[in-house]
Amino acid sequence: MTENARDDRTNPRRAAVLEALRASDEALGVTELAELLGIHPNTARFHLDALVAQGLVDRRIEDPSGRGRPRTVHAPHPGMDRGGQRRYQLLAKILLSQLAGSPGADATAEAAGRNWGGYLVEQVPPSHQTGEAEARQRLNAMMTDLGFAPEPVRDADDRIRLRHCPFLELAEEYSATLCPLHLGLMQGALTEIHAPIAATRLEPFAEPDACLVHLSPAAHSPATTPRPRQRRTRST
């Protein structure tokens, strides 16, 4: 839900316009709506324009029944109301608690992360040989986009600091399951771009303000390792 859509819910007049359209058995014109609500037509038109822009109201032109101009009418957009709260964190907690109680939860989470990491990383052509510097750049770009705020450790090329966790509250409770998923994301990304380095370990909360990712040379050279097939399991 966009910020403007939230504004529509907190604007009493705009909410009244939307509710009047929903309560009506037929589409309403500006004048009809203004008379129904006891407001000026320009006020009704202003709020209708905003609701149409947000996709909450549909506007259409009706053919005139006789002589005269076509009539513009408005009706609420069909479908479930997209206003109101979202509780994605609760959903994530429910799923994590279920996964955490199953055998091999950490391995399952890591495998899921590897699958998605290969999808989320910026792709390279199949014949491209990725160098270490480029691999680090692509890995850092992906982790930055995901909100982990990565930075190299000074005088230690084999480690990366993650200064922010976009799932911090969940990670504090379910680190044994969620952190392997994060490690899997990095492993999948590096495998997908055929990097000469690999993410081997993730230390949750290794420092007061960061987690530590450990890197090492990949087990196989880019010249001898077959390039994995790119997986497309992401749903929209």
TrEMBL record:
Record GO terms (molecular function): DNA-binding transcription factor activity
Database matches in CDD domains: HTH_ARSR (cd00090)
The HTH arsR-type domain, residue ranges: 8-101
Pfam families: HTH_20
InterPro entries reported in the protein's UniProt record: ArsR-like_HTH, HTH_ArsR_DNA-bd_dom, WH-like_DNA-bd_sf, WH_DNA-bd_sf
Region of interest (Disordered), ranges: 61-83, 216-236
Protein name: ArsR family transcriptional regulator
Organism: Kribbella pittospori
